[in-house]
Amino acid sequence: MNRTLIALPFGIISGAIIGLMLGGMWVQHQLGANAASADMFILVKQFPGLSRSMTQPWLTGYQIAGAALVATVLFTLALSFTQKLTQYGKAHFQSSAEIRKNGLLQMIGGGLVFARLGTYSILGRILGRFRFIASNWDKFPHCLVVAPTRAGKGVGYVIPNTLLFPGSCVILDVKGEIFEATSRHRQRQGDEIFYFAPFDFEHHSHRYNPLERIAALKNTDQQFTELSKLSTYFLTTSEKGGAADFIVGARELFVAGGMLAIERGKPTIGEITRVLFGGADKSEEYKLRAAEARHQQTRDIFTDFSGYADRTLSSYVSVLKGAGLGLWVNPKVDRVTSGNDFSWSTLRMKPQSVYIVVNSDDITTLAPLMRLLFGELIATLRSSLPNPKTEPWPVQIILDEFDQLGKMPIVVQSLKQLAGHGGRVSIITQSIPGLDNIYGENDRLSVESAAGMKLFISPNEKKTAAEVSEALGKTTRLSVSDSLSSDGRGFRRRSVSRRNEERPLMSPDEVKKLDASKVILIPERQNPILADRIVYYEDPYFSKIMAAQSGPLPYPDERHQIRSMRHEIEKLQGQVAQFRPLAYAPPAGITAKEIIAEVEAAQPALTDAEARESLRPSDKEAIRKASDFRKKMKAKVPIE
């Protein structure tokens, strides 16, 4: 409401009164009436009828009244325009026309679907046309969803977008509800389904081993570099000082353990824990690891750590465990990361759905593994741009309970560029303070900016509600005050004052009390949108998709276990074949002394010091066995 809306009716009423008075005086003057006893409202009280009103002097009287009315209205409007009240913000919720103009009423399937616009009409149900607020991938590839527990983020956002996404999906599935609701549909659409559930003891789990990719690299320095990157994805500490002072050295120790695990032919993180945590005397153990390692930098790291005081070395090991590596002491975690059933590098080549299933009570425990998985995924996508011919499929990444996973710097750093590499990321958190607690305000604002679209579902936390209120912007409200005062002579004077006031489009309290069926969308560089939350099982569009699903859930079956065992057996057979003894029959009449001399002549000459330096524990054992063999040969074969 503004000043013009008040001035217009005032001008019409005033103009009508003035016009009727002037017109009535003109008519009575023409009729010769006495001015003292004349009725100024004769045009109304003594209306002559339509036919006589078109004759003089009545016609001129009515024309004078009309002209006065128009003049008064124009004068009043002119005053209202020249004396406007101060205007403040103009924030408002988008209308349907604005939403359409801004490209957020796209056909679903070509981008993220955020909410529903209004109720379903009968015609819409008949024609199968439903109005969803949905964008295309070029406009809003990512989304930040803020929703407390049981607010409907699964039924209103995660499940609809998992059902619709035309490509590969990687979903952090808390409680396994997304797998149950969408896996059969995606399998029927042609996706290969993978179920990665470390703590599901009722069903088999697929496996993922990040070290297998690194072990396949031919260059050992490149292996060392990739292990260094890997350590930053999941070995983190939130403390300042204390553990944080040891984390850099702890990561170096992890890299050295990884290099030795690869050299042993056992490239798993479980083997790294056995390398680093095995044995009571860590100093002596690391001396043996240094002697065993072939890579120079690996040998140097173990040598350096073996020289630390026991207390210092124990601190590094303790920090390494607390930063995340201690999780692999669990045999189930070791087992599900001991081999590869899927690869991040093929997600853009063919449609796949990877459900990473974790119970809500286990998120904190399994957070290091989750950080490792998603860090590897994002790094793999970022490593190269997709080839349109061989990698046509985009990859949707849904990170639920994001703030409970611990700090993942790679997400903050890569979110803006990831869309160009085929990644579509949805970050879901319970509250704004939850993000601030892990990432700090600056990194949280960076995530919000990179996301582009923010979806708030039932924001009931104080700081979150305040952030939403501020993000919605300010609007202008007209305030009218009416007061009575005495003029000192027994009369009362009435005064009306009007002023514009600035106020939030929604106050924090109004945000917290928002109807549970409503959601707030804040698109980048647009006015906000107030819309209806999707409930997929009540929605006519999604209900059809759900009804078409049938059959058992695609858990890994016994055949998967057999294939995994066969793969392990074949790998072990290949390793054994490398050490198969060669058949050798010495010519008749050859003495043991001649055989030994021939072997010794083929070896390069080493000094005693060089020989001792080059020997490993395993070499010493081999020499001892060779010495025993030589004695037996001398006993059975004549020397001369």
TrEMBL record:
Residues 498-507, 609-630 have a biased composition (Basic and acidic residues). Keywords: Cell membrane, Membrane, Transmembrane, Transmembrane helix. Residues 631-640 have a biased composition (Basic residues). It comes from the Bacteria. It is found in: Cell membrane. The keyword Transmembrane applies. Its main location: membrane. GO terms for cellular component: plasma membrane. It is a multi-pass membrane protein. Pfam families: T4SS-DNA_transf. Residues 479-507, 607-640 are annotated as: Disordered. The keyword Cell membrane applies. The chain crosses the membrane at residues 62-82, 103-123. Belongs to the VirD4/TraG family. This is Type IV secretion system protein VirD4. It comes from Paracoccus isoporae.
